[in-house]
């Protein structure tokens, strides 16, 4: 029987030739910054402010709920810079956790990424892209079925609507493009991210220039600190008005929306072997990219407040706050412009997720913690098999549907899964930040080309924020939080079974 915690270097000499590290360093500083920003900017910034507004009930709290996670992410980016400089190789968070704690914890992070977080995000962006395209092409609709739902149980079904078909097409297209070499993925990512950032700047500029006269949001600044009565109960009888403790807890709970918009900020660390001078480029790109996006997110929410009265932000149709704001500024065409911008944004984010996720699974396979075939590079020096496995799983998540027998309505399986893993996402990011502190103690002589400024307070700032958000999730949203624990426990079972069966592949250190 293979010991699951044995030293990964013991069988390094047995690495098959096809698993060798022949990745090409094609990504420079500008491309890295665009990759960080492009991984973060999806559809969230254009929509989640509505739900956050319903929870918080005031303009001041809404803006604060975007500033606070922005500062958390900046602290995390500064800390990750030290880890990336110490271990400038593909895998990112998985590598840091594995090196600081154990292969088990590294595997659990990678397991959660593959089963839900990364694959679910790919599916979510693919479906979001298709739905926004449906604004212009009505035949692309959730109710226009190519294959009507086939029930596989009382609560689940498989279907293929035109929205799902376009989503599947996007997943396959980007897997194919990225299989042609990192240069192609890099060029596409930089181009789409530039368009995305220009779209956001255009929305902000138009809102700040015209919103004061065309919009009616001036009331938001006259009553900046006042709370409106229309707020959401997180538990029966519990709102931000219930008590000061409830206010603090609900504020932390609301950060799940803004933090979701910031998510994927560390994806650049997953592709370190394809970054030029990674020990310098990755830390700089992390800080620059997260700072840029954080500023744009704050300006976007300021733009919403300039144009829309707060109750309209709370009640925006389908939570499309950006579309509601643009309809005020450019009646008749505003929502269409936003739909086009979001479609482009989600496609760019989908490309970044596709590229980075495959590299994580490639590294895991080289460590004997994923399917062995995923350790192979194709003729273009990219992990083609890892791209294929990732695409297949994301497509399965796209086709599977949830079903409510009472309402007779279908939902998206990936939506439930993503809501279930918010707690796990925060936990593993916190664990990676704690790796900075642990490695300072266990490997004090390891070269550190870059050290996090303000140590240990900067890493601990993120840890404190993560703990607060996780506690709020467990208290106010237990139904969608405890499944995170079950998903991670399932990963621990898989890891144990892998050890019982002698592992999946030779386990190199590189």
UniProtKB/TrEMBL annotation:
Q: How does it sit in the membrane?
A: Multi-pass membrane protein
Q: Which InterPro entries match?
A: AA/rel_permease1, AminoAcid_Transporter
Database matches in Pfam families: AA_permease_2
Span of the secretion signal? none
| TM ranges | 27-48, 60-80, 100-117, 156-178, 190-212, 245-262, 282-307, 337-362, 382-400, 420-437, 457-476, 482-498
- What keywords does the record list, in alphabetical order? Membrane, Transmembrane, Transmembrane helix
Tell me where it mainly resides. membrane
User: Where found?
Assistant: Membrane
Is Signal one of the keywords UniProt gives this record? no
Q: Which Gene3D superfamilies match?
A: Amino acid/polyamine transporter I
Q: Kindly give the PANTHER family that the UniProt entry links to this protein.
A: AMINO ACID TRANSPORTER, SOBREMESA, ISOFORM B
Q: What is this protein called?
A: Amino acid transporter
Native organism is Paratrimastix pyriformis
């Amino acid at each position: 029987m293979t010991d699951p915690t044995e030293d990964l270097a013991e069988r390094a000499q047995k690495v098959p030739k096809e698993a060798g590290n022949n990745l090409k360093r094609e990504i420079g500083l500008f491309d890295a910054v665009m990759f960080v920003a492009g991984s973060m900017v999806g559809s969230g910034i254009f929509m989640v402010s509505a739900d956050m507004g319903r929870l918080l009930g005031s303009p001041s709290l809404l803006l604060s709920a975007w500033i606070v996670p922005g500062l958390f992410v900046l602290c995390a980016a500064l800390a990750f810079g030290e880890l990336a400089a110490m271990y400038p190789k593909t895998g990112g968070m998985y590598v840091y956790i594995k090196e600081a704690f154990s292969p088990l914890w590294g595997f659990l992070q990678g397991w959660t990424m593959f089963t839900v977080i990364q694959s679910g995000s790919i599916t979510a962006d693919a479906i979001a892209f298709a739905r926004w395209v449906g604004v212009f092409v009505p035949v692309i609709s959730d109710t226009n079925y190519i294959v009507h739902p086939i029930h596989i149980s009382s609560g689940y079904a498989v279907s293929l609507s035109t929205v799902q078909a376009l989503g599947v097409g996007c997943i396959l297209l980007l897997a194919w493009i990225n299989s042609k070499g990192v240069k192609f993925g890099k060029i596409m990512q930089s181009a789409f991210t530039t368009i995305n950032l220009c779209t956001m700047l255009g929305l902000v500029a138009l809102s700040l220039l015209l919103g004061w006269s065309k919009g009616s949001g001036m009331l938001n600044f006259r009553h900046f600190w006042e709370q409106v009565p229309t707020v959401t109960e997180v538990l029966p009888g519990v709102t931000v008005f219930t008590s000061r403790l409830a206010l603090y807890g609900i504020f932390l709970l609301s950060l799940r929306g803004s933090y979701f918009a910031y998510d994927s900020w560390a994806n650049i660390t997953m592709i370190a072997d394809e970054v030029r001078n990674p020990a310098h480029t990755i830390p700089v790109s992390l800080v620059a990219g997260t700072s840029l996006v954080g500023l744009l997110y704050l300006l976007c929410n300021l733009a919403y407040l300039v144009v829309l009265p707060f109750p309209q932000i709370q009640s925006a149709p389908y939570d499309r706050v950006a579309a509601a704001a643009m309809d005020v500024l450019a009646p008749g065409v505003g929502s269409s412009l936003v739909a086009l911008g979001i479609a482009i944004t989600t496609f760019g984010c989908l490309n970044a997720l596709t590229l980075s996720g495959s590299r994580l699974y490639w590294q895991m396979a080289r460590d004997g913690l994923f399917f062995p075939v995923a350790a192979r590079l194709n003729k273009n020096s990219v992990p083609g098999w890892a791209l294929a496995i990732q695409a297949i799983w994301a497509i399965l998540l796209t086709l599977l549907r949830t079903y409510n027998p009472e309402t007779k309505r279908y939902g998206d399986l990936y939506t439930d899964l993503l809501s279930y893993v918010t707690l796990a996402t925060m936990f593993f990011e916190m664990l990676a930040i704690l790796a900075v502190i642990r490695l300072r103690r266990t490997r004090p002589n390891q070269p550190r080309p870059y050290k996090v400024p303000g140590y240990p307070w900067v890493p601990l700032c993120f840890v404190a924020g993560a703990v607060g958000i996780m506690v709020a999730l467990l208290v106010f949203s237990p139904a969608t939080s405890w499944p995170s624990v079950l998903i991670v426990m399932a990963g621990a079972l898989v890891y144990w079974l892998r050890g019982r069966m002698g592992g999946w592949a030779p386990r190199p250190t590189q």
